[in-house]
Amino acid sequence: MISSYASASAKIILFGEHAVVYGQPAVAIPLQDIRASAAVSIDISISNPIVEAKDLKLETALNVTSHPESILHIIKAIKLINERVVNLPQSGWRLTVWSKIPMGRGLGSSAATSIAVLRALLKAMNEIISARKLIKLSYELEKIHHGKPSGIDNTVISMEKPILFRKDKAPTMINPDSMFFVVGDTGIAKKTSEVVSQVADARDENSEQYDYIFNQIGKIALNGARALQEGDVLKLGNLMNENQSLLEKINVSSPELDKLISEARLHGAFGAKLCGAGKGGCMVAITKDGRTAANVTKSLIKAGAKRSFTTKLIKNPEVSLS
User: What is the pLDDT at residue 65?
Assistant: First the structure.
């Protein structure tokens, strides 16, 4: 085992929230600017491996009878590697985890943390696995957080590349030209599983209406994937606005999100929508250039966003699943 460091990006769902749970396509992109990190350090004086969650100010020995619930996904990641990839040493090392991705904002914080941990431990053991296997392992960890996740978060973060995603199918990679997005954070944390459950309950009461909306969202996602590949930012913006209108119809937006979305459009964004489960969390806007993105960022802060930042989607080489 060697000392190692690894990280994983946040993500944004551009199209397809909630509908993706019911088999519709969705589009997601990585957010390279904010990341979760994990490091393995070697210390021969450690008799029982130590797990440290810096942000939570928690530290625990690995081989004890119980662990704090907030780090169970980290413990599970270690066990998964032991069970399915390689046996980790029983002493002499420490795993430290930290993240700049806010929790409960629809940016994939849980998936990014899990994947950073998997990458760091595998690197420490000089083990190389395929993106496909990383997606499979990280999906097991997502179940801890979300119960029955669609799999989109851990897939796009494992690939760190824009994807067209459909549940239980291999993702289609998208390689668009560079473009600018602005993220605005309402500061309101929401648990994805709770919002997904609320939508499921509403769908049970009116399945015909909800399935029609989900089908429309799915069509938008397919058109969005094509527009992303073509670099058509104006079309992307229009589609984002359409997607937001449908999300409002299933009651997953909020006054705080609506205000930030309106401000982004007012100050030059081609389109804006919530990203993630909704009821709080973040919104995302697309702009024609970096200068407009900076103006939108400033306007969101003035409108009450707890934080706002610009991210540039960069064209990069193809990534293989094998």
Answer: 87
Output the pLDDT for position 45: 94
CB 243 within 8 A of CB 27: no
User: Per the residue annotation, which of 55, 153, 168, 289 is the catalytic one?
Assistant: 153
User: Which segments of the chain have a pLDDT < 50?
Assistant: none
Task: Delimit the CATH 3.30.230.10 region(s) of the chain.
Answer: 4-173
Question: What pLDDT digit, counting tens, does each position of 171-181 carry?
Answer: 999 988 889 99
Q: What pLDDT is stored for residue 321 in this prediction? A: 60
The percent of residues above 70 in pLDDT, for the chain, comes to 97
Task: Give 182's contacts (C-beta < 8 A, 6+ positions apart).
Answer: 264, 269, 284, 285, 286, 287, 293, 296, 297, 300, 308, 309, 310, 311
Instruction: Write phi, then psi, for 168 (nearest 5 degrees).
Output: 70, 15
**CATH 3.30.70.890 spans which residues of the chain?**
179-313
Pairing of strands 172-173, 58-61: unpaired
Q: State yes or no: is 153 an active-site residue.
A: yes
Question: What distance, in Å, lies between the first and last C-alpha atoms of the chain?
Answer: 25
Give the Cα separation of 252 and 155 in Å (integer): 23
Tokens of 107: 């940016």
Q: Tell the CATH topology of 179-313.
A: Alpha-Beta Plaits (3.30.70)
User: Span 4-173: which CATH code?
Assistant: 3.30.230.10
pTM, to two decimals: 0.90
